[in-house]
Amino acid sequence: MTVTAAPATRPTADRPDLTRAALSGRRRFTNRLATAAIWGAVLLAVVPLALVTYTVVSKGAGVMSPSFLTEDIPNSYRRVGGGMAPAIIGTLLITGAAALMAIPLGVFGAIYLNEYGKQRPLARLIRLMADVMTGVPSIVMGLFIYIAWVRLVGQFTGFAGALALACLMLPVVIRSSEEMLRLVPEELRQASMALGARKWKTTLTVVLPAAISGITSGSLLAVARAAGETAPIIIVTGIAFSPNWNLFDGSNTALPAQIFRNASTSFPAAQDRAWGAALTLIVIVLGFTIIARFISSRFAIKER
Amino acid sequence: MASNDTDLTTRPSVAVHAPGSTAAGAETTTAPVMQLRDVSVYYGSYEAVRGTSMPIQQNQVTAMIGPSGCGKSTVLRALNRMNDPIPGARVSGDVLYHGQDLYARDVDPIQVRRRIGMVFQKPNPFPKSIYDNVAYGLRINGIKGRLDDHVEAALTQAALWDEVKDKLRKSALALSGGQQQRLCIARTIAVKPEVILMDEPCSALDPIATAKIEDLMFELTNDYTIVIVTHNMQQAARVSHYTAFFTAEVDDKQVRHGRLVEFSQTGKLFTNPADKRTEDYITGRFG
């Protein structure tokens, strides 16, 4: 009663003042403060990113040339010129092999966790172990592979690096894929089930396609992260100055390891090569990210 | 619009069928497709629905009505073993389909669901094209060749073909809610089940879309047996031949259970209910 009566008793003839000036001073002040704080936070986040990009591009562009991408690494740090071809090849091979191992395993693991294991003790244990593995420092993973694989086969290999990177990627792929599978609405599984589909069929034909874009981008981001890992590469792949296309025989190298080695010398020529390698690595990682974006928009569920 | 015309002509005929004294009613006194015998559904140790016995007659619409939490959806889902994946869900009593207990040890739930389909409360098309939505059930059931014909037939039967025939490759998610629900019905009938279970199929739809689905249900009774759960008593009165009224009751241990109060032909249940609780509910004194 009182609710309906109130508008009638209010003086309705006045035109309500809808301008911003009609707000109280305190509210206008709070608004300005919040806006300023948000802009400040954006700037703070963008400034380091822009500076890193600017520094790497300006210092790396000097040595960047077709020969830098195709020539061998000089045996002596002091020597001017040479290139990073062995490290580029090593990075692509090692990261690629790691992705081939970690992504299928991780996606299958995520399917087990979300579609089959759910809250069973085994699934909870795997989830816990994956979380613990995410927190393992990459150098520890490198040492683990050194003991478990390098010592066993008796030599540094690119494959050992791939194993270490795969171990680092695996928990990330599992957890991000599981998260994506969790987002698939339960109604879709029910609809498929009500049509007489078996569980594996539902998973393969309904759940996985609905989650594939998220799984792809999550996996490729894990690949991009692994491509930048330095410590395990230094520990388990050894060093190479000419391209080694064989992952299973002989030492190899990768861009992050070369950045580390060249940057930590006092020779300007080596430092230039480190900047060039850094630029190359950033471009490669950017490439992965763009591919991830492209694939996820390609597979994204279209509304129209 | 054409659909409005059929609207007006089909509805009274449902009402005529419903009292059951007519020839149409007499024809259906054959053996029921499904028969529930003292069915109780448990979630863990909690008995959600207690002792339900009722028949599901062939080529008829059977409605389940009752207040929220009375277990009507639970019973519906028990009819094609949709409760199976819920941890702790269990059924006692017999759910007979052509005399076979659906919960017998050697019964494959997949086989059950291929014959007893389901349409859900919220339209849930797959995030695929309209065509692939309808073809999905055919593909997983290994029906090869002439898929186009099957898809067209199902969409036509679901009264959706004319609206979508030019955009079969477009995403099903671009359709309106009512169209999506008819697509879900088309998807269900494409695999030619014998029984279609509908769990409040119109509760997310506007009145016009609801009217279309109701017309469609009437058409579908030529080929299918329909069981519908609805919150809407008018809807039950309009579309169904038989109605089961459920309610929630509290036993002496203060535990709530869903109970089937009354099952009879729709006309009788709404005009001359045998139970006081049914009368209170349909006259709006309760629930």
Helices and strands in order:
The complex is a heterodimer of chains A (304) and B (287).
Chain A: H1 2-9, H2 25-60, H3 66-70, H4 85-117, H5 121-134, H6 138-153, H7 158-182, H8 186-194, H9 199-227, H10 231-236, H11 255-263, H12 268-299
Chain B: H1 2-17, H2 23-27, E1 34-43, E2 46-56, E3 61-65, H3 72-78, E4 89-97, E5 100-101, H4 109-115, E6 116-119, H5 130-140, H6 147-157, H7 161-164, H8 177-190, E7 195-199, H9 207-220, E8 225-229, H10 233-239, E9 242-250, E10 256-265, H11 266-271, H12 276-282
Parallel strand pairs in B: 2-10, 3-8, 3-9, 6-7, 7-8
Antiparallel strand pairs in B: 1-2, 1-4, 4-5, 9-10
Give a structural overview:
The complex is a heterodimer of chains A (304) and B (287). Chain A is mainly α. Chain A has a single domain (82-299), classed as Orthogonal Bundle (MetI-like fold). Chain A has helices spanning 2-9, 25-60, 66-70, 85-117, 121-134, 138-153, 158-182, 186-194, 199-227, 231-236, 255-263, 268-299. In chain A, helix 9 (199-227) packs antiparallel against helix 12 (268-299). Chain A is flat, with a radius of gyration of 27 Å. Chain B has a single domain (2-25, 48-282), classed as P-loop containing nucleotide triphosphate hydrolases (Rossmann fold, 3-Layer(aba) Sandwich), CATH 3.40.50.300. Helices cover 38% and strands 24% of the residues of chain B. Chain B has a 10-stranded mixed β-sheet with strand order 5-4-1-2-10-9-3-8-7-6, with helices on both faces. Residues 1-28 of chain B have low confidence and may be disordered. The chains are: A mainly alpha (304), B alpha/beta (287). The interface between A and B is medium-sized, with 21 and 29 residues. Chain B: Residues 1-26 are annotated as: Disordered. Chain B: Its EC number is 3.6.3.27. Chain B: It comes from Micromonospora radicis.
